[in-house]
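Input set for joint prediction.
Command: fold jointly, output tokens.
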Amino acid sequence: MILDPMVVTLIEALVKTIVVIVALLTAFAYLTLVERYVVAKIQSRIGPNRVGAIGGIALLQPIADAIKMIFKEDFWPAQADKIVYTIAPGIAVGTALLAWAVIPLNPSMEIFGYHVDFYIANVNIAVLYLLAISSLGVYGIVLGGWGSNNKYSMLGALRSTAQMISYEVSLGLALVGVLMISGSLSLVDIVQKQSFIWNIVWQPLGFIIYFIAAVAEVNRLPFDLPEAETELVAGYQTEYSSLKFALFYMAEYINMLTVSAIASTMFLGGYQGLFGILPGVHWLILKIMFFIFVMMWMRGTLPRFRYDQLMGFGWKVLLPLALANIFITAIVMVVLGK
Amino acid sequence: MELIPFDFLAGLAVIAALGVVVLRNPVYCALCLAGVFVALAGLYVLLSAPFLAAAQVMIYAGAILILFVFVIMLLSPRVDQGAGTLKWQRPLAIVFGFALIAELVLVVALAVLPSARGPYTPERIAQIGSTQAVGASLFTDFLLPFEITSLLLLVAIVGVIVLAKKRQ
Amino acid sequence: MLTVNHFVILSAILFSIGAVGVLVRRNPLIMFMSIELMLNAANLAFVGFSRYLQSIDGQVFVFLILTAAAAEVAVGLAIIVALFRARETVDVDEANTLKG
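tokens >
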């Protein structure tokens, strides 16, 4: 049975997409559990240990949470704009998932004589695509805040949006250093060039800037003023319940996974192992888990930034540092003749 | 074969553009404009300009439109009041619109296009990457416009800050 | 077979829709959005020609237009906000204090 090559490519892309999405959704479910355990450990508590517990770890807890959330009352705020109110969480999750289309998961392999590439698409402007998708992610928040027809939601959404677009600039500039070293915008090329030495060795400052900006982009502590429980009720998520709230929640965790994956790919070498030992998707998973753990660790320990401190930090500290990083990288590259 | 994505994206762009012009609620108009931008980005990819497609989404849909949505949310949560104060204005505008389309199509159909004259064939652009091609041209042939554009951005930033200040 | 005419005619249609939008709508924000639509139509024509004349100049030009449009939108929206902040209606026909 010989199929038309275009059909084969389509089927291949579809299968890969489904695998990635299913993996991400499962990861999201268990990430909520991991978060509760990590935060509990930091706060000297035990954390959930009843539902489907195996040795004190509640493995069915995410399923219980999901069922609870689905059965909550699905209300519509009065005079809320129905279309906007409904599509906002969809946009948030959609843009969070879209970024995974370009991340390389495993070096290309030959399985049964058939060449398999472990990425969904090798776009030669992959980094720009990632930046574009992350700037589209703001829409989910701003539309969610506006569609709720609630002043607190809108204020929270505006603050969150302003924070996200401010830190997006530093995020992009921090990645420019890596681009200068790799000479290519394609993530597959960037990972292949890190087969011996990871980019963090050449770009330590860029890495720190990227990580701080990424935590601000995802609205995690210490940058989570727009959705903190003690401020503005719950920000743009105030008027959302049951499935729509679950979608926003999912979008936030998948965003965390996405920025961790981008940090791993651009700075820590993606699927490349230490000194090139045994490259594979297991290394990528380890690195992503490391970043997720650091984010949860920060959540458990650091206090929250005030809004003006947050914006001042983004524009007056992080942006000049990112520009200085580019400058220094350029000088070093010219001097060393790389 | 190439025609299918073009038809789809072109149809999407035209319908979204009509949505911008026809819909009453300003937020819906902004969302339709986002649709136009994304459709155009797709068309740029068809035209071997992936760098521009990403830049279009990043700048237009990701920054300019957000600004629009901000201002819409702050200024007019109300629905647009209605058409112009002059009754015959709208039909006349639509007639002018059709006249404009007819005129432009006529110009295009009668024009004799010059033959290809540059070195950047689509194959070459795919080979060296459209980003590199645009960048090389930007920093050599178009250096003066590039510098002037950066000056323009500085002027815009200063102007906006002055305009947005509250009177004391 | 995709020729340059396809893209230029599409650009013409989008441009006309934008022009009609500026003429018909009274809300300044939607008028501004129609102007952006016209700019995008011009961008499409540029990129179309750039591809069929096999020159990169069209793409560079579009990049510069993108930047200029961003600056223009920022300043334009600041003006609109400053102008309509104190008024109740958002209708350009009401902004006529300079009328003799």
